[in-house]
């Protein structure tokens, strides 16, 4: 047996408080606990009922994102919540944070935003950490070489009271991405392509490590897009080894170490990548050169294909139901399908680079008549940066709506939603039935594809627009 | 939590694969701040028609599904969002067990922590169960087997600690709190390393 370990194993080993045995799972220490309004109230209530305190409140980072309106407060200062429950849920987290002494990046904070966008922005997410949140897209933080995964509300309570979780060690799956992504094809196309290949349960029970030249070439934002959707392949978490790109991105962030502590941290982080000869339980190879602008045609993220490829025929009753729901036609490509709504946002694609990508396509053009387009930045910081560059003007001049940060139409619980039957080209991560409103039909796509589709009023290849810009 | 040793019931079947937690409880109902009363929202957009009446096409609305505590579901049940509202809703709806060839990780974990038996069986047995809705099953948690009407058995495996907690009504948070000293020692070591 060699001593070579994977990135995952190194992080796991460093956080085991009590090792697992045949009878009991490991007790795993949690470095950072992210909290939002939807999955925390019952956990705070449990703590209160049992007379327990938070073990390490300084290891918690809380924000408001899911139930929050994305239209600004009215002149009376009232925020336009979708309903009283949404307002009460936000008030509950504010009250819980006050009572338990948790730092809340709330309405009055310059940092508020989608929890998976602000963790990295603040430098709270760092290589080698264990990070959890009552939210399945916690896998996003794996882009930094952190072991980050979603948990349920009972476990949120466990972490609050003990800073630990009971965990069985998951298996490892290496996804090697060889070659280079073609021009005009991005990280979102790549991850949709990967899920299309391995399936929505292809990663169940595993932690994925994305490796290879095409991954190393990605920016941090693109790595976050890839890791974000690991859960859509059923994986526990997704990881990318930290490298110079990671360190450069983190340096100088508010919660990143400084001075000598920074140098020491980087020296430690350099030890994290998987050793040569480390063994994975499974390995998959993907050729980046074959990836094209990719979209979904069904009702889960595994039903993804190149937009110019024919929609595959249904193999069973339920695929037939999915095609019926989507009104997708077997044998015909998704490209050209009429579009009603376009959403650019969510923890998958709401960072500055995503907004630049969409704006690059839209600049100087108008979206098609009858199309409604919503652009929702991932955080207040993204909003500020985008406005400084004038991106908001590009969007509004094109006829899109520029909103206040939040999850918005990704989960459609704040009142931002599509009507039954409407087709939404969305940069979010889930195309489940009804996810963006009852009866709404979701097509997942990259920001560039979303923008091109808004212009054309049909699902369109962004490369056609990018070529014109370059000329 | 109450100890759970045996569940006896007829089965109801939802054969669709990849039934995600958004389908089990749509996101717009997640503004709740309690665990209670989610049963009436369970499978909401599948179960009810636009006018609020029962959708006759929803399998669990069939008369023969009424009172069934064991659900046999298509592969990869519970995928998607980590919301624990999904097992809360299923339990409040009256279900006590979900049988499937593959169950999404986070959902399975959440379910077992709430006393909803999320049990994986082999593909062959799964297919057989899907094809035989309405049969009487008896799930034995201690023996880790499902007893069929003819006395035949389907073996399954639960994670040993989850099984121990179900059988003895163990409070997992209480178990973790017993390790406070080890956690403190770990934090002290970690402080030195940093
Ligand atoms: S943007 Fe969507 S996926 Fe991300 S945290 Fe919000 S609701 Fe979840």
Task: Report what the structure shows.
The complex is a heterodimer of chains A (471) and B (194). By secondary structure, chain A is of the alpha/beta class. Helix content of chain A is 32%, strand content 16%. Chain A contains 16 helices and 19 strands. A five-stranded parallel β-sheet of chain A has the order 5-4-3-6-7, sandwiched between helices. In chain A, strand 1 (16-18) and strand 2 (26-29) form a beta hairpin. In chain A, helix 2 (41-50) packs across helix 5 and helix 12 (352-362) packs parallel to helix 15 (447-456). The mean pLDDT of chain A is 96. Chain B is an alpha/beta fold and 194 residues long. Chain B has a single domain (6-190), classed as Alpha-Beta Barrel (Aconitase, domain 4), CATH 3.20.19. Chain B contains eight helices and seven strands. The chains are: A alpha/beta (471), B alpha/beta (194). Chains A and B meet through helix 2, helix 3, helix 5 and helix 11 of A and helix 4, helix 6, helix 7 and helix 8 of B. The structure holds iron/sulfur cluster. Iron/sulfur cluster (SF4) binds at residues 65-66, 114, 116, 135, 137, 346-347, 407, 410-411, 428-429 of chain A.
């Amino acid at each position: 047996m060699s001593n070579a370990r994977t990135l995952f194993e190194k992080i796991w080993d460093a956080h085991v408080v009590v090792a697992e045995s045949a009878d009991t799972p490991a007790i795993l220490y949690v470095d950072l606990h992210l909290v939002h309004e939807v999955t925390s109230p019952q956990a705070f209530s449990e703590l209160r009922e049992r007379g327990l305190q938070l073990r390490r409140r300084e290891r918690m980072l809380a924000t408001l994102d899911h139930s929050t309106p994305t239209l600004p407060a009215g002149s009376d200062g009232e925020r336009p919540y979708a309903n009283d429950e949404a307002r009460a849920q936000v008030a509950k987290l504010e009250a819980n944070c006050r009572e338990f002494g948790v730092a809340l990046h709330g309405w009055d904070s310059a940092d508020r935003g989608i929890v998976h966008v602000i963790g990295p922005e603040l430098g709270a997410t760092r290589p080698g950490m264990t990070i959890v949140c009552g939210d399945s897209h916690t896998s996003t933080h794996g882009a930094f070489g952190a072991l980050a995964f979603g948990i349920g509300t009972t476990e949120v309570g466990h972490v609050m009271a003990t800073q630990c979780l009971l965990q069985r060690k998951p298996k490892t799956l290496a996804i090697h991405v060889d070659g280079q992504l073609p021009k005009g094809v991005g990280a979102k196309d790549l991850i949709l392509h990967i899920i299309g290949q391995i399936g929505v349960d292809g990663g169940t029970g595993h932690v994925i490590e994305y490796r290879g030249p095409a991954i190393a070439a990605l920016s941090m934002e693109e790595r976050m897009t890839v890791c974000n959707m690991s859960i859509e392949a059923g994986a526990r978490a997704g990881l990318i080894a930290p490298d110079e790109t990671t360190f450069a991105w983190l340096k100088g962030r508010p919660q990143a170490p400084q001075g000598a502590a920074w140098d020491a941290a980087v020296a430690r982080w350099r030890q994290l990548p998987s050793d040569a000869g480390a063994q994975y339980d499974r390995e998959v190879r993907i050729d980046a050169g074959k990836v094209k602008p990719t979209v979904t045609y069904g009702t889960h993220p595994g039903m993804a294909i190149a937009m110019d490829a024919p929609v595959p025929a249904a193999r069973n009753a339920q695929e037939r139901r999915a095609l019926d729901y989507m009104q997708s036609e077997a044998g015909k490509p998704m490209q050209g399908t009429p579009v009603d709504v376009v959403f650019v946002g969510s923890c998958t694609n709401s960072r500055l680079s995503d907004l630049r990508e969409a704006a690059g396509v839209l600049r100087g053009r108008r979206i098609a008549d009858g199309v409604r387009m919503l652009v929702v930045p991932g955080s207040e910081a993204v909003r500020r940066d985008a406005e400084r560059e004038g991106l908001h003007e590009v969007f509004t001049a094109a006829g899109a709506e520029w909103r206040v940060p939040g999850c918005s139409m990704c989960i459609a619980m704040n009142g931002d939603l599509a009507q039954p039957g409407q087709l939404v080209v969305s940069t979010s991560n889930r195309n489940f039935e009804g996810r963006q409103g009852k009866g709404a039909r979701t097509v997942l796509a990259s920001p560039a594809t979303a923008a091109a589709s808004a212009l054309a009023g049909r699902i369109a290849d962004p490369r056609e627009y990018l070529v014109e810009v370059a000329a | 939590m109450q100890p759970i040793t045996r569940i006896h019931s007829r089965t109801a079947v939802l054969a669709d694969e990849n039934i995600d937690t958004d389908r089990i409880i749509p996101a717009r109902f997640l503004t709740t701040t309690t665990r209670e009363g989610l049963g009436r929202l369970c499978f909401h957009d599948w179960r009810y028609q636009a006018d609020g009446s029962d959708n006759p096409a929803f399998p669990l609305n069939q008369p023969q599904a009424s009172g069934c505590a064991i659900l046999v579901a298509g592969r990869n049940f519970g995928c998607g969002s980590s919301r624990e509202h999904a097992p809360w809703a299923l339990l409040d709806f009256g279900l006590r067990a979900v049988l499937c060839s593959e169950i999404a990780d986070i959902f399975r974990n959440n379910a077992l922590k709430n006393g909803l038996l999320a049990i994986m069986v082999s593909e062959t047995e799964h297919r057989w169960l899907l094809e035989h809705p309405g049969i009487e099953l008896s799930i034995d948690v201690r023996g880790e087997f499902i007893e069929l009407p003819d006395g035949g058995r389907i073996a399954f495996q639960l994670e040993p600690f989850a099984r121990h907690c179900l059988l003895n009504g163990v409070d997992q948070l209480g178990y973790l709190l017993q390790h406070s000293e080890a956690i403190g020692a770990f934090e002290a070591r970690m402080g030195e390393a940093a």
